[in-house]
Amino acid sequence: MQRLGALAIFVVGCGSPAVPRLDLGEPPSEWFEPAAESFQLAQLAHGPTQRFLAQRGGTWELDFDPVLATPRSMRGSGIAFCAAGSSEAELETAALAFVREHADLFGTAELVSAGAVVERELSTISLAQRHRGVPVIAGHLGLTISRGRLVLVQGTTYPIHELVTTPQIGLARAVAAVRAVLAPAHAGDRDAGRLVILPERGPGSIRYHLAWEVTAWRGPDQAVVYVDAHGGSVLSGYDAHRYDYAGRATNHVDERTVGDAVVPLPASHLRLHSSRGTATSDGDGAFKFSGTAGPLIVSANLHGAYVDVQNLDGPNATFIGMMRPESAYALEWTEARSTPEERDVFRGATVTNRYVAPVFPGLTWLDRPILAKVNHKRTCNAYWNGSSINFFAAGNGCNNTGRIFDVVAHEWGHGFDANAPGAAIDGALGEFIGDLISFVQTHSPLLGPGFFTDGKPVRDLEDPNYQCYDPKKREVHAAGHLLGAVVWDIFLDLERAGVTGDRLKRLMLFPIAIAQTRAGWYSAMLAVDDDDGNLVNGTPNECLIYNQFKAHSCAGARWPGIPDRDPPQCVNRAP
Ligand SMILES: [Zn+2]
Fold it and tell me: 483 C-alpha vs ligand 1 centroid, how far in Å?
């Protein structure tokens, strides 16, 4: 057998030349290229733009992508768009009709709905681009309707011509090409694929590939790899897990992390089981079963209305107790029947869901429990993988990542972002959203104190290295950190200006449903702030928001998405 084994290895080694392993890069993120003023003026004078302005009227601020020559932002005095109280279907019909009407402007008429948030005063609909039915990666357009008026259109639409959309190679060959460049597959691994159009951007250039997008699971790893559907070559790939922290170490002590005082909080929205059916505790942790006769055996795991916690290193948290009708029953999750990380993840995910949900009452993803897995046998990280949030055990100088509220909120934020309107186009925006979901709750510029045993946080939104917009910072957490620094300062300024409570929460969180890239965040905030269906005449906090984006444009590059000049209503109010 030994000899046979050796022989087999020898034969394989000879017969198939070593294929280099694919170097998995970062997830995709926004490609924003500054455009010269002369280019913008030429685009404004262009037929489709002129026709839009003549036909729709009003005042519009347009910003065109310098390579695609399609608008990436249109912010205006508003177009009467739909009646108050329109349904999502009506809004979708109106949005698609609008895009078809201006197909020459957007370079395509082929868009499909990718989610919407519909409210009386402010609605947003996200559209995804197709080309002859094939999804175009990152091709998207978002329409924002304030008080029945279309005030903001943001996105990236690709004018694709002359691309053959019939693949020359099949999915099976694409999967084989991917297998050749990834770690060997083992039992339980799988691969799945779909045909897409992959725009490949470089400075001043754009190329389109018809590609097979293959998602490959290898044990705990997940890769997305693009294979040219005409030539069969591997184009690019990325690690699809949203890992969040790189290894160092900590043991900070405060209320939200390891070493803090253990505070008793309600186990709210927890599911319980009994022979009389199931019950769910309320926001204060209270629960009841119907019936009065005799004792009742009750059991529960750390499963609830908003999160199901799974322990990968030992039995799941389990509670079994006896309720008697004549006495009030106290169910307490303690060390006896659960681990701290299970309890902390249950609380972190539940509290975060309940915090965010009032801003998005129509989003059904918020009504379902998210799957959370604790104690992966790895250290110093946590991730979202498209269907669950995952936390690593303690070790190598890191605490158990499930025990840090900020980390739970951040990973939950990835899940929310993936299920809010739109798609994951800008990895850096996704990292920012995770941090945002955390800092609006903790009210702290530090993200993840207690992650490492040396007491330092994972990120600090007041870190001087992240205060000026820097297009060279491309790593997704670093690029997201830049926007976090701006929005953290806006958060503080808004509070100082008296914007608090639900209004502040909405102003901070609703842009998630509007902006698809970092460049879209500024206008998205204005749309949420708007009070009259017009984005050109100023919004209540426009200057405050603008001034922070301007203040953070301090290294020679202006923040993508902000106007080239101070808005007229802010000229005399610049800091
Ligand atoms: Zn993240």
Answer: 14
